[in-house]
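Sequence design from tokenized structure. All designs in this work follow the same two-part layout: the structure record, then the generated sequence. An example of the structure record is given first.
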């Protein structure tokens, strides 16, 4: 792709025209205050789309969720499912057109239902919160997910334990034998997300449910990013299929997620369907006729492996691979109502397309090509999806059979009328091993041909992530563009969406192959875009990107006036033993033993800390257990010891990500001040000053 892009027609008008001097900048607070849509669900008759609608409560410093019903034909205003209720999420229709959802209306998060006539009814009254649920296709039962103690026989037992623990004056957190100490931003408390069956034919809201996995000491869904896609219920409601790690293997943080089945009446223990399969498996999804089970697979648990698609015939237990594409990595799957097609959202070459696999023809069709489809649903001849791009936040789209695509939302339109967004362009170049590497460049706001602009060189984390054609509420190039900076981003070797070999290339090579791509990408961008001012550029990165910023400080400091390290790794060996996912470092560096050619030591940024000389801003969240705070403090101390100008911003209430709206605005404000200081830039500076 060589044209300046807008991912969808609905976002094209949001892009600033060259030299639009009257427009105000798109600021960090604008970004934080944008509404967000997610989790679209099509009604059985195809007339309505239920969607989670998140707004921002600035004073409360948090997001507020509500469910809305949007007409698929685009007419009228969206209907609020539960007026006055701002904590409802997870809309799920049953076959009769009733809408189930999660709500905190009763004081704890429970399952509620909106009847066809609009009346609301509480479905569960458990003593603890419901984390998620999945309806049986026949509508007679559902499976709920709740965080419980595995040694408790009832939900009331877990509640009693919680209350007793809360009353204790002693604050020590006991970690049992064989259990990891912490996960993401919390210490392990002996609680695990498990499955419970509920009979919906019973009158009233039950306070107890049938435990399907008693004594199961493992989370069935991830507490940070998991959802109900981890489970599927058979047509008759008698069997539950789910993907989860084997509790017996939890002593290893890198044990794979496997495929399981369990009777919905709790009469037998869970059974692993493929005991010899060592692959990572997720999202078991039953076909409409209940005969086939589709699921996502990776050859290993490691995130560099591309995610493909398999189907298992439940009648004979045989499986086959559906998607063997080299560069497409799938994220979510849904069967078509007739069972002939599987739809999937994917990562592919800097885009996030929606594709359809025709099972009979063994063919694949691209439904949405450009931009990034973040979520979707297919039902009753209607496809609904949320898609975003570098030039538009997520918008809700719909396409009914035989009709054209229709945009159902224009989120941010009022803001973008005042503060238009900057155009973006994808480019490519030969990187490490002369293999094709892709990147994006974003023009600064008020761009004038012939002038030069300072540059924000953004490095993504993961490392198996991507800075592609997508919208971000944390690292958003449009905010830098409105600050007056051009933005350059490179999807180096190790990035997702370019095939397994491309992703695997970074393993054991954190500091050389990606660095070569970044160097060549920077040179290519400077050659292509003469308006990039190479003398006024800063490199910024978070997580692995922060690691790379530290690595750059000792191995490629020449181009940069300043650096910004957010949650970056300083000492690879200490990081390996203190992170909440120790198996990750072991896989990334091919072991943790001390050898003469050990990657974990060869690519340790701390070894070159004494040579650092580029002014560096360090940012870290105190609740970050993925890259613990000590890594950021160590970076800051090393910079001070080397006599390098440095400042540090610590968020006591944030983890690996900065999520609170006011904290996000502060983050951008501090970063902008740091970059402006060292590049001698400001938004009000005439463009002609740096011709």
């Amino acid at each position: 792709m060589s044209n300046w892009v807008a991912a969808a027609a609905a976002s094209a008008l949001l892009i600033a025209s060259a030299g639009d001097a009257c427009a105000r900048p798109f600021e960090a607070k604008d970004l934080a205050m944008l509404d967000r849509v997610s989790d679209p669900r099509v009604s059985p008759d195809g007339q309505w789309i239920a969607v989670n609608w998140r707004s921002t409560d600035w004073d409360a410093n948090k997001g507020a969720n509500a469910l809305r019903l949007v007409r698929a034909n685009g007419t009228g205003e969206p209907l609020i499912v539960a007026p006055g209720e701002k904590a409802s999420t997870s809309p799920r229709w049953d076959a009769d057109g009733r809408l189930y959802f999660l709500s905190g209306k009763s004081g704890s998060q429970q399952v509620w239902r909106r009847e066809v006539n609009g009346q609301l009814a509480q479905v569960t009254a458990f003593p603890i919160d419901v984390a998620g649920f999945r309806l049986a296709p026949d509508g007679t039962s559902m499976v709920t997910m709740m965080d419980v103690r595995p040694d408790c026989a009832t939900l009331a037992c877990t509640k009693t334990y919680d209350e007793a623990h809360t009353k204790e004056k002693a604050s020590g957190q006991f970690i049992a034998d064989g259990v990891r100490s912490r996960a993401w931003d919390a210490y392990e408390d002996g609680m695990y997300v498990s499955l419970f069956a509920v009979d919906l034919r019973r009158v009233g809201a039950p306070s107890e449910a049938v435990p399907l996995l008693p004594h199961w000491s493992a989370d069935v869904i991830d507490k940070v990013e998991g959802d109900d896609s981890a489970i599927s219920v058979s047509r008759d409601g008698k069997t539950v299929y789910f993907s989860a790690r084997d509790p017996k293997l939890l002593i290893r943080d890198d044990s794979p997620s496997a495929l399981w089945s369990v009777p919905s009446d709790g009469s037998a223990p869970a059974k692993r369907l493929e005991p010899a399969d060592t692959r990572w498996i997720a999202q078991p999804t039953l076909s409409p006729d209940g005969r086939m089970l589709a699921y996502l697979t990776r050859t290993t648990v490691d995130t560099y492996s591309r995610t493909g698609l398999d189907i298992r015939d439940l009648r004979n237990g045989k499986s086959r691979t559906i998607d063997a594409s080299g560069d497409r990595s799938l994220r979510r799957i849904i069967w078509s109502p007739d069972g002939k097609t599987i739809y999937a959202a994917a990562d592919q070459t800097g885009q996030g397309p929606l594709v359809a696999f025709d099972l009979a023809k063994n063919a694949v069709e691209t439904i949405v090509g450009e931009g990034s489809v973040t979520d979707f649903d297919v039902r009753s001849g209607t496809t609904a999806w949320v898609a975003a791009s570098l030039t538009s936040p997520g918008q809700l789209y719909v396409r009914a059979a035989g009709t054209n695509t229709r945009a159902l939302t224009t989120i941010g339109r009022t803001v973008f009328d005042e503060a238009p967004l900057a155009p973006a362009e994808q480019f490519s170049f030969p990187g490490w091993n002369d293999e094709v590497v892709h990147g994006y460049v974003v023009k600064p706001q008020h761009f004038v041909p012939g002038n030069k602009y300072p540059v924000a060189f953004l490095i993504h984390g993961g490392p198996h992530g991507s800075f592609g054609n997508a919208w971000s509420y944390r690292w958003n190039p449009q905010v830098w563009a409105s600050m007056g900076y051009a933005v350059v981003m490179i999807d180096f070797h190790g990035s997702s969406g370019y095939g397994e070999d491309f992703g695997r290339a970074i393993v054991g090579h954190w500091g050389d192959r990606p660095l070569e791509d970044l160097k060549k990408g920077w040179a290519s961008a400077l050659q292509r875009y003469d308006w990039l001012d190479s003398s006024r550029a800063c490199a910024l990165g978070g997580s692995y990107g922060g690691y790379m910023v530290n690595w750059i400080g000792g191995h490629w400091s020449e181009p940069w006036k300043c650096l910004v390290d957010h949650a970056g790794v300083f000492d690879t060996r200490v990081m390996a033993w203190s992170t909440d996912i120790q198996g990750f470092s072991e896989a990334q560096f091919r072991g943790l033993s001390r050898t003469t050619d050990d990657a974990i030591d060869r690519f340790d940024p701390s070894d070159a800390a004494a040579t650092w000389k580029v002014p560096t801003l360090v940012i870290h969240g105190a609740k970050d257990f993925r890259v613990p705070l000590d890594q950021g403090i160590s970076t800051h101390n090393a910079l001070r010891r080397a006599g390098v100008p440095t400042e540090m911003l610590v968020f006591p209430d944030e983890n690996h990500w900065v999520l609170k709206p006011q904290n996000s605005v502060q983050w951008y404000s501090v970063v902008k001040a740091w970059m402006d200081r060292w590049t001698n830039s400001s938004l009000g500076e005439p463009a002609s000053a740096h011709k």
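Residues 661-679 form the longest helix (19 residues). We note this feature because it recurs in several other targets discussed in the main text.
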